[in-house]
Write a structure and sequence with these properties.
heterodimer, A: mainly alpha, MetI-like fold, two-stranded antiparallel ribbon, 17 helices, 73% helix, 1% strand, globular, B: mainly alpha, 74% helix
């Protein structure tokens, strides 16, 4: 390797050769993406085949869109789709604004040590595993659990939260807010730390109160970050976590808790309907991708911010 | 900002209201986050019967270490714990080295193909082959039911890699690289001797993120592991914390053994949560000071 300038004058071939050490550093990660991320893309075609493990991917009969048709005409298509979308939208509505508010609030804590302590505490639930989180939900919301104990202290009747279909969504979404609001506020706090103190000082001189400063200085400053995060969140809307819904499922709340991701797992891994399960999975991914691209485009037109 | 206030006379009335609302929100959030965690903690030291009867709300009662004793006697927890420790240790080494090395290579934009590689990697964040094609690859490679699959299947996170690359671009000065190259330093040497030492904050955040993900992961074991001896802690925890609850209502042939399991779970549930969280707490307290520094770069780049 020579200096950067001479590198650019070299031919492509020489540049590739002179960068060989960089390629070596890149290789392990690249190999990972090739094997575990790109190779499966090749396997997507089993969604269009009547896949038989014995005949392999190429040997299996090509059946076109049969698997997709079967899914669209299935008795549970509507409920799966609406369960997935409802849960995802509720999740977004609750989970997106709260970290922003939390960041704005934490930004106005004057005492630095108390601020640090608060941050330390609000980030902590993010590190709890999904299994433990759902375990905690079971503990707190069971018939003899803490929530019902408080309900009884205040003279109410105990409620069977865990077995009620209508309680699945609120518990899912609120526990998610509880777990991730602190962590998700980091990004906005970081953006807020970039607000120049002179702006605030000037506003104070002009007699602006804190409400006005929040709305006219802080919020406009973090708006680009908010837009980017919104695009990302909407773009990931259909990739709802399998884990939590699956762990929270029981026979009694299945009507609301069966989402596409859990269905793919059950049909694919437990019942070994490989082709069909993959078709359902692809349907989900494609909707997700279309959503992401459109939101990105819309935001690019309206605000000029986009992911790429 | 706030410190300047005294210089500008007395606080405005609106500001007082603002502060009050601010305090209410902060205290409410702290209470909502702390109380459940605190409750698990005190319940783990209390008499299980008193917990069930609602006698333990704010302070531990009937203090005993009985449930911890039973936790340590429960063999599955030990094997799960050991598996999780091994997986987390090895998995984090693999993930962090692959990520940091790739992040450095991709931060050197003069490397031909850099832009293409970035696009290929970003694409995987938004579209994947899905569960079954990945499952078939794992089976085809002979990785099914091995420890290796748990270490490799999520080895590199595209998101982490992008954060790491942005950090490298922002924190490893181009001039330093040029100067080092003039002195005859090659890329390997520069990476190990300069780029890695400069990126300590990044390294600690990456170690934490990968270690926590591995320690907490349960889905991969559910799909790819059938041998009980390889079960990580989270799968065992699921049996204890969740499956005992959801099967409770069913009428089963072995009702007696189920009742027995439920009783055991009832006793252990608080202490296993505490025991399973200890490594996380330790890691968290070590790394927390680097959070903002490490995460901020990711924030700017989105």
């Amino acid at each position: 390797m020579k200096t950067a300038q001479t590198v650019h004058r070299k031919s492509l071939g020489r540049r590739i050769i002179s960068s060989w050490q960089l390629y070596v550093l890149l290789l392990p990660a690249l190999a990972y993406f090739a094997v575990f991320r790109y190779a499966p893309l090749y396997g997507i075609q089993i969604a269009f085949r009547n896949y038989m493990p014995r005949s392999g991917i190429w040997g299996s009969e090509w059946i076109g869109l049969d698997n997709f048709e079967r899914f669209f005409n299935g008795f549970n298509f509507v409920s799966l789709l609406s369960n997935t979308i409802t849960l995802a939208v509720l999740q977004l509505v609750a989970n997106f604004p709260i970290p922003i508010i939390l960041a704005l609030v934490m930004n106005y804590i004057k005492n630095q040590r108390f601020k640090r302590a608060t941050q330390l505490i609000v980030y902590a639930p993010y590190f709890i595993s999904t299994v433990v989180l759902v375990g905690m939900l079971n503990i707190f919301f069971s018939l003899d659990g803490l929530v019902n104990q408080f309900i009884q202290i205040f003279g109410g009747e105990p409620i069977l939260f865990l077995n009620m279909e209508s309680m699945f969504r609120p518990m899912y979404v609120l526990s998610d807010v509880w777990q991730t609001m602190g962590w998700n506020s980091i990004i906005y706090l970081a953006a807020l730390s970039g607000v120049s103190p002179e702006l605030h000082e000037a506003a104070i001189v002009d007699g602006a109160n804190k409400f006005q400063r929040v709305f006219h200085i802080d919020i406009p400053h973090i708006l680009p970050t908010v837009v980017i995060m919104l695009i990302l969140n909407v773009g990931m809307i259909m990739s709802l976590g399998f884990e939590k819904a699956y762990l929270m499922q029981n026979d009694l709340n299945l009507g609301k808790s069966e989402i596409i991701a859990t269905y793919v797992y059950k049909v694919g891994i437990q019942q070994a309907q490989y082709g069909f399960s993959t078709a359902v999975d692809i349907f989900n991914s494609v909707i997700n991708l279309i959503l992401l691209l459109s939101v990105n485009k819309i935001s690019n037109k309206i605000s000029g911010s986009s992911l790429w | 900002m706030a410190k300047k206030k005294s210089e500008f006379g007395s606080e405005i009335f609106a500001d007082k209201i603002f502060d009050i609302i601010n305090w209410i929100i902060v205290l409410f959030v702290l209470l909502v986050i702390c109380y459940p965690l605190y409750f698990i903690f005190i319940a783990s030291f209390s008499d299980p019967d008193m917990v069930t009867n609602g006698e333990v709300l704010f302070f531990p009662r009937g203090i005993s270490l009985r449930s911890y004793e039973r936790t340590f006697q429960y063999a599955d927890i030990w094997s799960g714990y050991l598996n999780s420790l091994i997986n987390t240790f090895l998995g984090t080494i693999i993930s962090v080295s692959a990520t940091i090395a790739a992040a450095y290579a991709l931060s050197r934009k003069e490397m031909p193909g850099c832009g293409l590689f970035m696009k290929l990697i970003t694409f995987t964040m938004f579209f994947s082959g899905g569960l079954i094609p990945t499952y078939l690859i794992v089976k085809g490679l002979g990785l099914y039911n091995t420890r290796a699959v748990l270490l490799l299947i999520s080895a590199v996170s595209a998101y982490n890699l992008i954060i790491a690359r942005s950090f490298m671009i922002a924190n490893v000065p181009e001039e330093l690289h040029e100067a080092a190259t003039l002195d005859g330093c090659d890329e390997f040497k520069f990476f190990f001797k300069v780029a890695v030492p400069i990126s300590k904050a990044l390294l600690s955040v990456m170690i934490l993120l990968y270690a926590v993900a591995q320690w907490n992961s349960y889905f991969n074991a559910l799909v790819y592991i059938s041998d009980r001896k390889l079960y990580p802690l989270q799968v065992i925890l699921r049996e204890l914390l969740i499956q005992t609850e959801s099967t409770a209502g069913r009428v089963a042939g072995d009702a007696a053994s189920q009742a027995e399991m439920r009783k055991l779970a009832n006793m252990l549930k608080y202490s296993v949560i505490i025991v399973s969280s200890v490594p996380l707490l330790i890691a968290y307290s070590f790394v927390q000071k680097y959070f903002e520094k490490g995460m901020m770069i990711g924030a700017i780049k989105g």
